[in-house]
């Protein structure tokens, strides 16, 4: 550089420096802005001379923050996940049935190519040493992708358990994260070398206890707090619940568990867009798998040293409450315990969105009356469904187009119409090319089924002592005859009908196993599932090996 150029550069640098140090205009001289806060120089800015040739390093560390108290909601969650001992025999026994039922639902989903195309390693042929097994396949994956795969097959058919309150959801979705981590930890620790999770070897009993906790966190959060009303999807709670229990599974301290939970709350939350017309699509079937993989990933990051955000919920402007919840804080009906698992709902009879279960059962009962009268679905003029508010809000789609599988399995009119027309409702009735989806009678009848809210049904739905999901069908025939209303308040999988449901749950599990394994192996799995004490002692990796298919 010439001396003239050097002098010119120096002058421009000094000018720039004077401009930087010039005092800011007073607030009265600036354009009016709401809640204006004058800018202040940080110690870092005032201590460092201006340089025209040097940029601020992108990895510069901020000054350490003073210790902060975590939001109480996160403190309580982390304390429960870390310290609570599951002592409820009812909860553990119920978890056993949930465990078997959920695995069976995952196997059933493997019969659908739209599901299986999403599974497996990112790079075809990849096998991860000591990796997670995916039931019904030969995949061996890292625990993050394993959680996605298991979570996706579990949720695909909307046939696993259910929890209905201010927010609804499917707490057994969390098994995707729990199983993936337990399997991977066992195999890694048995292989020798670097130990993880304190050299823990998980048994099925451990998995059931973690299921109780995940169910409880998701379910208690859902009792009073409606995320759907602000457009957020219930899989948010899967991510938070899975993060809470996986943190403990990986040996994180209670403080690290708080960090991990805060990461789950700040993570971008799924919107319900993919569950509603005109955007209904298959993402609703893998959204829980996505939540599971994010939970495991966040826990592993905290295990590797990542911190947390103490006021991620309550921070003004930037916290979850202000950004996502209209400034409202969470409310809680009860402390965490084992209530949710003890009262969880099973989907026993039909692969259908849970708010429709009793309506479909009512239609099946009415079919018997029609048959005795020599009548069929073709003789029906119209149907009125007296129902609860949540059913209307979520699955009342009388005149909306049925564009795909996701539309049909979340339309109460379609599901009831199929039952009237074929006296069945199966997963095979939802695809575009199915007999039911292409039936003119199903479509015509669907548009003649209307829903009306009964405020008492809605009140009973939210009543902690009942939690019924009532539907009542009144059928008017073309000859002018009106049949007596058929009311079903509690579906077969409800707590009030639990003992009646247990044989059916095991029969459902058996049906889902049979297409995948030899008769002798199916018997072995069913017998083990029925032998609670033997099942509880089985190590998770050995149990998962029983579901591997070549």
TrEMBL record:
MmgE/PrpD C-terminal domain span: 350-526
GO cellular component: mitochondrion
E.C. code: 4.2.1.79
Keyword Repeat: no
Pfam families attached to this UniProt entry: MmgE_PrpD_C, MmgE_PrpD_N
Enzyme class: lyase
GO BP annotation list: propionate metabolic process, methylcitrate cycle
Lyase is among the record's keywords: yes
NCBIfam families from the UniProt entry: PRK09425.1, prpD
Protein known as: ATP-binding cassette transporter CGR1
Organism of provenance: Friedmanniomyces endolithicus
């Amino acid at each position: 550089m010439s001396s003239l150029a050097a002098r010119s550069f120096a002058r421009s640098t000094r000018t720039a420096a004077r401009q930087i140090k010039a005092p800011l205009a007073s607030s009265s001289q600036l354009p009016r802005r709401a809640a204006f806060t004058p800018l202040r120089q940080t110690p870092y800015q005032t201590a460092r001379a201006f340089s025209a040739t040097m940029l601020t390093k992108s990895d510069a560390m901020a000054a350490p923050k003073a210790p902060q108290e975590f939001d109480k909601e996160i403190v309580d969650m982390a304390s429960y996940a870390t310290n609570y001992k599951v002592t409820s025999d009812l909860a553990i026994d119920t978890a056993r049935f949930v465990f078997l039922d959920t695995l069976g639902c995952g196997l059933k989903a493997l019969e659908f190519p739209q599901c299986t195309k999403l599974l497996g390693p990112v790079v075809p042929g990849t096998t991860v040493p000591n990796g997670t097994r995916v039931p019904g396949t030969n995949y061996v994956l890292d625990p993050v992708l394993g959680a996605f795969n298991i979570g996706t097959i579990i949720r695909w058919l909307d046939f696993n358990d259910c929890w209905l309150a201010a927010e609804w959801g499917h707490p057994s979705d969390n098994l995707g994260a729990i199983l993936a981590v337990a399997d991977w930890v066992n195999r890694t620790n048995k292989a020798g070398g670097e130990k993880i999770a304190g050299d823990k070897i998980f048994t099925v009993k451990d998995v059931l206890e973690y299921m109780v906790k995940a169910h409880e966190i998701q379910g208690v959060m859902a009792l009073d707090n409606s995320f759907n009303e602000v457009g957020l999807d219930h899989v948010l709670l899967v991510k938070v619940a899975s993060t809470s229990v996986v943190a403990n599974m990986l040996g994180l301290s209670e403080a690290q568990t708080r960090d991990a939970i805060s990461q789950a709350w700040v993570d971008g939350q799924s919107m319900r867009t993919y569950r509603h017309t005109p955007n209904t699509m298959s993402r609703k079937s893998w959204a829980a798998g996505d939540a599971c993989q994010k939970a495991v990933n966040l826990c592993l990051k905290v295990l590797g040293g990542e911190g947390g955000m103490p006021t991620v919920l309550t921070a003004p402007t930037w916290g979850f409450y202000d950004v996502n919840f209209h400034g409202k804080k969470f409310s809680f009906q009860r402390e965490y315990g084992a209530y949710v698992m003890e009262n969880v709902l099973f989907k026993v009879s039909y692969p259908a969105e849970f708010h429709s279960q009793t309506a479909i059962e009512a239609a099946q009962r009415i079919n018997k009356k029609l048959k005795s009268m020599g009548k069929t679905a073709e003789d029906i003029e119209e149907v009125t469904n007296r129902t609860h508010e949540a059913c209307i809000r979520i699955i009342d789609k009388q005149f909306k187009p049925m564009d795909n599988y996701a539309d049909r399995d979340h339309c109460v009119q379609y599901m009831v119409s199929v039952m009237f027309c074929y006296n069945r409702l199966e997963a095979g009735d939802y695809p575009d090319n199915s007999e039911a989806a292409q039936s003119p009678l199903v479509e015509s009848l669907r548009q003649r089924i209307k829903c009306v809210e009964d405020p008492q049904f809605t009140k009973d739905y939210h009543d902690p002592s009942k939690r019924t999901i009532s539907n009542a069908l009144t059928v008017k025939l073309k000859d002018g005859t009106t049949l007596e209303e058929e009311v079903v308040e509690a579906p077969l999988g409800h707590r009030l009908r639990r003992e009646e449901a247990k044989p059916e749950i095991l029969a459902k599990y058996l049906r889902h196993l049979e297409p995948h394994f030899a008769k002798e192996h199916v018997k072995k799995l069913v017998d083990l599932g029925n032998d609670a004490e033997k099942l509880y002692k089985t190590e998770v990796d050995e149990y998962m090996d029983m579901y591997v298919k070549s």
